[in-house]
Amino acid sequence: MEKCKLTCKIGPSILNADLSKLSEESERLLDSGADYLHLDVMDGHFVPNITFGHPVVKCLRTKIPKAFFETHMMVSNPEQWVEPMADANVDQYTFHYEASNDIPSLCRKIRDSGMKVGIGIKPNTPVDIVKEYISLADMILVMTVEPGFGGQAFMANMMPKVEWLRQNYPELDIEVDGGVSLDNINLCAEAGANMIVSGTAVVKSQNPKEVMLDMRNTVMKGVLKNC
Fold first, then answer.
1. Residue 203, Cβ neighbours under 10 Å: how many?
2. Which amino acids are annotated catalytic?
3. Mean pLDDT of the chain
4. Assigned architecture for domain 9-226
């Protein structure tokens, strides 16, 4: 039997951390077993909130030179920020399908800048809308809340999107983001997600190492089942 090519990855969202201690909080999460850091970039236009941009990401990179950085670009005109994020040594640039008028061109620009390509879809966006772009992307992100704020309730009715992606693209990296906790991680795993973003449940936990280990074990079972 061919070895499963999927891997399970847990990426805490640092939006819920103490942003005055961003590097220390990031190091704490990495030391607790995080596979990557999920950096939520919001512009106050595409979503009704403002977080941080490439200068902060670049400063964080100087403190944490080796961790995998994924920037989740909840911004209008995501083309504008590709080069600054590449300059900040971001590893994966995830933009929203709804924010771009020329997705193929944007994907090429991201890849030419040396970053991996992620494409995210909001809850009201049909999942099959991205199928013509799958070959251009490294990962598809299914939002399980409305993007813009942390602490929202997980939308279980987004799981059929994950199932559809996994059934049609068995080796695709599929990420879920929004309200993911130990109470619903099994739904994500059973649907076929292998990349898990979790904010409050991990960052605010008294034992983030234990929470991420439990999440990883649950998702790993789902990954093996879906191989």
1. 20
2. 40, 177
3. 95
4. Alpha-Beta Barrel (3.20)
What one-character DSSP code corresponds to residue 98? G
Kindly provide the b/e burial profile for residues 157-196, where b requires at least 16 CB atoms within 10 angstroms of the residue's own CB: ebbebbbbbbeebeebbbbbbbbbbeebbebbbbbbbbbb
Q: Among positive and negative, which fits the CA dihedral 73, 78, 79, 81?
A: negative
Average pLDDT over every residue of 210-216: 97
Please give the backbone phi and psi of residue 182, each rounded to the nearest 5 degrees, phi first: -65, -20
Which amino acid appears at position 117 of this protein? V
- Measured from the Cβ of residue 77, the count of other Cβ atoms closer than 10 Å reads 15
Distance CA 110, CA 78 (A): 10
- All residues at 6 or more sequence positions from 183 whose CB lies less than 8 Å from its CB, including other chains: 154
Closest CA to 96 of 107, 85, 87, 86: 107
Q: List, in sequence order, every residue forming a beta bridge with 120; answer none if it has no partner.
A: 96, 141
Planar angle of CA 40, 154, 35, nearest 5 degrees: 45
pLDDT in tens, 185-198: 999 999 999 999 99
Which pTM does this prediction carry?
0.96
With bands split at pLDDT 50, 70 and 90, how would you rate the model's confidence at 225?
Answer: confident
Closest alpha carbon to 53 in 25, 80, 85, 76? 85
The first and second tokens of residue 148, run together, are 């813009």
Which residues are 69's β-sheet partners? Answer: 37
